[in-house]
From TrEMBL:
One of its GO terms (biological process) is DNA recombination. PANTHER family: PROPHAGE INTEGRASE, PROPHAGE INTEGRASE INTA-RELATED. Belongs to the 'phage' integrase family. Residues 249-444 form the Tyr recombinase domain. It comes from the Bacteria. Pfam families: Arm-DNA-bind_3, Phage_integrase. Gene3D superfamilies: Integrase, DNA-binding domain, Intergrase catalytic core. This is Tyr recombinase domain-containing protein. Keywords: DNA integration, DNA recombination.
Length: 462
């Protein structure tokens, strides 16, 4: 292996001439020039014209070749210095390739640690929301509901801007102040100070936001990027638990003597979709999202049944009776839904490039983004405001169904099956499978009793 003293002219003149072959007849694709001054330093040139300084040595009987760099970027002195440092490693019994790999891994680890310490709660929160949207819940084995995702978004919203409903300025969510902080700044002291401020704004909302944020921190512990950044003390510290508001279970529920006032107010709502929806919540005891997501294909007027997208039963959902009065309300909605628009409305649709077609949703909404009813609470609250009734939430209507059914002496298992509750006893879980006609008998009695108490005159069609 011939060696020469590296000079700028020799480095520039070195080429790998094409058309050369080895003794075995294989084409020569690269040519080497070796430095006589620095052991192991060479200049490699390829047939394509590329050049690079290299270092070649021997570690434990094995040949090691390491690329140093392009002669256009490395001077001869720099290449010689680099070759000497590599030879020093080899003299110590260290493979330069392994040494470089360790240095690279250590550098990447330092960069990752720095990024983990600098990442903000807001950035991690975005990934957490994407996780909630795309992964199934380990508890229910089903995707999370839109309402659950929206709850996280609203609680972390920075506020500002004008709300579509009411025209008032949007208020920031309780989690918004935490979004700008780094994950490493979430400590027990930080959470305690945050809770003190949010409790003064609303203790119930603060407790709810804290519960969601605690679930977020637990998720961070399972994430490869965020694990170990936030201490579990941030939510488990006695300092935090000591000021956390105590959760109080809601007990809003309609009383028997309040039914006439409630029905009168709700039946007087101008929007027939909202009016029927609210009455449906009370008559079926369904969850608000279940009833709002009802499609016309889920309604069977002939056999009087509704198929709910049940969060407990799973993909198949649950089938419950369609009572006569509720059926009359839905038939009215079906008639309105199937009625085509007038000429003026048809013209407006054509100008926008749209074409009319009946909605697939039972409780359709022309203003909602997904086409179905989204927020009936405001209409419900406005209707009840002049009546003097205590506040009743939409979930309180579901609670009212379960409570008021005791006046009809309906078996508890029947009520649970209609509402979609999990069986609470072995006998209910394994030995009770009530057919639809049996549920219908009891459900009709519940509706008839409610209408009697509300003094609503209704004659079911035979």
């Amino acid at each position: 292996m011939a060696k020469v003293n590296f000079t700028a002219a020799r480095v520039e003149a070195h080429r790998c001439a094409p058309g050369q072959f080895t003794k075995n007849g294989k084409p020569v694709n690269q040519s080497f020039l070796w430095d006589s001054k620095t052991p192991g330093l060479g200049l490699r040139a390829t047939v394509g014209g590329a050049k690079a300084y290299i270092f070649q040595g021997n570690v434990h009987g094995s040949t090691v070749r390491v690329k140093i760099g392009d002669p256009r970027s490395w001077t001869i002195d720099q290449a010689q210095e680099r070759a000497r440092s590599l030879q020093t490693l080899i003299d110590s019994g260290i493979d330069p390739r392994e040494h470089e790999a360790k240095q690279k891994a250590a550098h990447e680890a330092r960069q990752a640690a720095k990024q983990r310490q600098d990442v903000t709660v807001g950035k991690a929160w975005e990934q957490y929301l994407e996780h909630l949207r795309t992964k199934i819940s380990p508890k229910t084995k089903k995707p999370r509901s839109e309402r659950y995702i929206l709850d996280h978004i609203n609680l972390s919203s920075p506020g500002g801007g004008i709300a579509k409903r009411g025209g008032k300025e949007k208020v920031r969510g309780p989690l918004a102040p935490l979004m700008a902080l780094r994950l490493s700044e979430i400590t027990a002291d930080c959470m305690a100070d945050w809770l003190q401020v949010e409790i003064s704004r609303g203790p119930t909302n603060a407790a709810h936001a804290f519960g969601l944020f605690k679930a977020f921190v637990r998720w961070c512990e399972t994430h490869e990027t965020f694990a170990g950044v936030v201490s579990p003390d941030a939510y488990a510290s006695p300092k935090v638990k000591g000021i956390l508001p105590r959760s109080v279970a809601k007990d809003d529920c309609l009383q028997r003597e309040q039914l006439s006032v409630w029905f009168s107010a709700v039946r007087g709502i101008a929007n027939p979709v909202i009016s029927a929806y609210l009455q449906g919540l009370l008559i079926t005891g369904a969850r608000r999202e279940e009833l709002a997501a009802l499609r016309w294909e889920d309604v069977d007027f002939r056999w009087r049944s509704l198929t709910m997208n049940d969060k407990v039963e799973g993909t198949g959902g649950r089938t419950i009776p369609l009572t006569p009065y509720l059926a009359s309300l839905l038939q009215n909605l079906r008639r309105l839904n199937d009625t085509p628009p007038n000429k003026r409305q048809t013209t407006r649709l054509a100008q926008r490039g749209d074409q009319w077609e009946p909605s697939e949703w039972v409780f359709a909404s022309k203003t909602a983004s997904d086409g179905k009813i989204a927020e009936p609470r405001h209409a419900h609250n406005r209707a009840l405001s002049p009546t003097g009734l205590p506040h009743i939430s939409l979930h309180g209507l579901r609670r009212s169904f379960g409570t008021l059914s005791e006046w009809v002496e309906v078996p508890v298992g029947v009520v649970a099956q209609i509402q979609g509750h999990k069986p609470s006893a072995i006998a209910e879980k394994h030995y009770r499978r009530r057919p639809l006609d049996l549920l219908r008998m009891w459900h009709d009695k519940i509706e008839t009793w409610m209408l009697e108490q509300a003094q609503v005159k209704f004659e079911p069609q035979k």
